[in-house]
Design a protein that fits this description.
The structure is a homodimer of 483-residue chains. Chain A is an alpha/beta fold and 483 residues long. Chain A has 3 domains: 88 residues, Orthogonal Bundle (Arc Repressor Mutant, subunit A); 134 residues, Aspartate Aminotransferase, domain 1 (Alpha-Beta Complex), CATH 3.90.1150; 236 residues, Aspartate Aminotransferase, domain 2 (3-Layer(aba) Sandwich). Chain A contains 16 helices and 15 strands. In chain A, the strands form 4 sheets. Chain A has an 8-stranded mixed β-sheet, with helices on both faces. A 3-stranded antiparallel β-sheet of chain A has the order 1-3-2. The first copy, chain A, is globular, with a radius of gyration of 23 Å.
Chain lengths: 483, 483
């Protein structure tokens, strides 16, 4: 897209935006990754004119060849466009978001879509919708704008927290347009240009994008097979004084690890002692497949100024309901409600009423959902063990995906090849900062068993075409995981 | 709210953020207005430590007394908090957004709420919802994430534009979570810190906030009783090279004026010639009450890179449906869909299906809606003419409100007093930049006639208490219009 190109960024400003962009591997790949990230997140607005190659090379202390190769790659991918007289300008690939809604288990365009880890709606949705329609007339005489959320939904969510052992009042709940909006609101409320936000690494990709969209830098703390490194989290918080820490304590996306009860307490103490806002994303908390339910991230604290929880109806119920929430101190809830007024004013009244009804049916919905996910997880793991015995596949105790270690940095290449074999999947680097995790692949088990079987067929064919992991060709990919 | 206060802003940075903050009236009021605006919009993130009074006074070249008075006012209003050891820190008033949904025509808490200009749902909503539920099962086997919008809604909206004389294909439509999200997405896509965006003045308040939230500066172009000053618009665009122009061409909110057909063509030519994105907010286009329908803002152009339209289901149908849209070049539609993925992923599937059904019933809905609004407008104007004969009240040819000239800068005081007489209303300065328009009041006629009568009773009592406009006391107010 070519629009007004009065916006320019010079070499030194670009250097400052890029920060520490260099990773292992070819420098032009690292530079392209970093520029792509800045463009996608909006840190570099659309139609910004980039400096010439020589100026960038001088500013970054790299060769001009590196810059030329990075620009070429981004032009090929559709993230840059060059025009005579206008220089090189940021853009986004045409129609990059233009795809039909994913139909789970079907082969739309021949593809099984594993790029999102999100299940279909529960059978109880129809009843919940019918009940919501019965409740609707008492709302349609209003203007329909409810920045804080409907009182009945705030009360139902507060009661749910309270029953889980976290005493909560409705004024501690803000209803949002999905969990993603909660993350976006919190990030933009606390972090601005030049600030730092600590994230787990790997993590949920849209959280990294929300941090970058605020102009802030995502500072990664590693998650290993044993979980988030809490020693490193504490030292990082002390070193970089982040404005926000974003964690997925329950069935972490994508690794599947969970914080222990003691680890949660340690995180809460860190938040209070350093007066740092720590956001715990509890999107997957209802999806414990093995063992007892996890202890709530908020602990037993009634109203904490630093420990903030984000929840969502997307995974417990359905992503088509754009309902999420924040549990926080009432003052923060009020402040966020003011800010969301210029973002989207309020959330769908109908979706809020449906969510109230689904919460009333949650026990039944979740028993069935967990049984379904257990069966799908086991089917996926069995089939991978049979057809892809080289892969190291952890058995997640909950959530919606497993974080496969491929043993070689070929995930991007594999994902590109898999597309030709009927599978859309997000390679590891989507979940990291700056091109890391190319030896990992997130494989969701949120789809029906027959679709998972077809997906493993496609992945196995792609793996064979790669030479069983022996190949290390890196294939550039513009793929993006939705969840 | 007190959180991590590591963020600081120094005097010179604050001066740069404030820009040209001085207005007529006391300097401390202007400074407080500007700081409040920066805090509300998020340009100054929550919990930012402001410089000391002496440093601000030096940086701005004003007396220390001015800064002290501005800080005191903001502390009283709850926008600043001072703590020993932490200095003076930005915050937002507790529970500022915490109010129940507005019930039109009822006296909740004794109040008639005229702060939003938004009608209740049409009677056809129930049928549309029932039909949407019938269509839902074909969507619930998907994950429910649709960044671009459901194909059936995009097709219905494209067809509606085409029938209005603007040939449009579905790939030119992005479905958003209300018109407000469309404005927010476009603003943050094109404008960043230090950029300028041109807005009409007065204008829709959440558009100003969206510009500020992007870190950009809103450059005002006046709207008089004869409409937007297009000469000044053209010269402003040439002078300040804005990244974006935001206009309300149809029944402008709040003045009620509309661009002529020739004016629209002039704006489109300006957009193309200067390669400036001009966003036309068509939220009120269906609500022409007198005379023929307005010519579409997009003209007859099939696919324009600079002329972008925003639409909404909120005023034609109901605000509780959080559905809006962008009509733009397909490349921009794809780019915006990518960006919205880290904002809220997608819009409610159910609301989209309901909107499809309401679009199929739009002719009937809108005939009834316009008849209702005509009756309410006439009832409001009659009653004001009888009880408040000093006011100058234009007769808007469409939309949802009239922009009353009070003849004296007392709107903020009047609104504060009106609250005690059972009326919540947004004074003129809410629709301006930096405390202007205190001689104006937006009075919506979106409520039932009996509520409008009670509202005029309350306004007349407040007006009498003010001394019939003779008083000029300025009362600080934290009120905010929702639409």
């Amino acid at each position: 897209m070519s629009v007004n190109v009065d916006r320019r960024v010079n070499g030194s400003a670009l250097r400052s935006l890029l920060g520490s962009w260099q990773r292992t591997g070819p420098a032009y790949h690292s530079l392209a990754d970093a520029l792509r990230g800045l463009t996608r997140s909006g840190t570099l607005p659309l139609a910004t004119r980039l400096p010439g190659e020589r100026e960038v090379a001088d500013a970054l202390g790299v060769s001009r060849t590196t810059v030329t190769a990075a620009y070429d790659l981004l032009r090929d991918e559709g993230f840059l466009v060059s025009r005579r007289g206008s220089g090189t300008v940021t853009t986004l690939p045409p129609h990059a978001g233009d795809r039909a809604p994913v139909r789970l288990g079907t082969m739309e365009g021949g593809l099984v879509d594993l790029s999102a880890a999100a299940p279909a709606a529960p059978r109880q949705l129809a009843d919940a919708c019918a009940a919501a329609l019965d409740a609707l007339p008492s709302h349609t005489t209003s203007a329909g704008y409810v920045p804080l959320g409907l009182p009945e939904l705030r009360a139902a969510l507060a009661e749910r927290y309270t029953r889980r052992g976290v005493p909560t009042t409705p004024d501690q709940i803000l209803v949002t347009t999905g969990g993603q909006q909660a993350i976006h609101l919190l990030t933009s409320a606390f972090a601005g240009p030049g600030d730092r936000a600590v994230v787990e690494h790997p993590t949920y990709p849209h959280a990294i994008e929300a941090v970058r969209a605020a102009g802030a830098r995502a500072v990664p703390v590693p998650v290993t097979a044993r979980g988030t490194d809490l020693d490193l989290l504490a030292s990082t918080v002390h070193q970089v004084s982040p404005r926000l820490v974003y964690l997925v304590p329950d069935h972490h996306n994508p690794t599947g690890t969970s914080l222990s009860a003691a680890g949660r307490e340690r995180v809460r103490e860190l938040a209070r002692r350093t007066r740092t806002v720590v956001v715990g994303d509890e999107t997957l908390t209802d999806l414990t497949l093995d063992g007892p339910a996890l202890t709530p991230f908020a602990g037993g604290g009634t109203s904490d100024r630093y420990v903030v929880c984000v929840g969502s109806a997307s995974k417990s119920f359905w992503g088509g309901l754009r309902i999420g929430w924040v549990r926080a101190h009432p003052d923060l809830v009020g402040a966020l409600a003011q800010r969301r007024a210029h973002v989207d004013i309020g959330s769908s009244v109908l979706d809020q009423l449906v969510t109230v009804e689904l919460l009333a049916r949650a026990d039944e919905v979740l028993v069935e959902r967990r049984a379904m996910l257990r069966a799908q997880r086991d089917a996926l793991l069995d089939r991978i063990a049979r057809d892809l015995p080289d892969w190291h596949v952890p058995v997640p105790a909950g959530g919606l995906s497993t974080w496969v270690n491929l043993g070689a940095p070929v995930a991007t290449a594999l994902a590109a090849l898999a597309h030709g074999h009927g599978v859309r999947i997000a390679p590891g680097p989507v979940f990291g900062v700056g091109g890391t995790f190319d030896d990992h692949l997130r494989v969701p088990f949120s789809q029906p068993v027959d679709a998972l079987h077809r997906a493993v067929d496609g992945l196995a064919a792609a793996w064979a075409a790669l030479g069983g992991g022996a190949a290390t060709t890196r294939v550039a990919s513009g793929q993006q995981a939705l969840v």
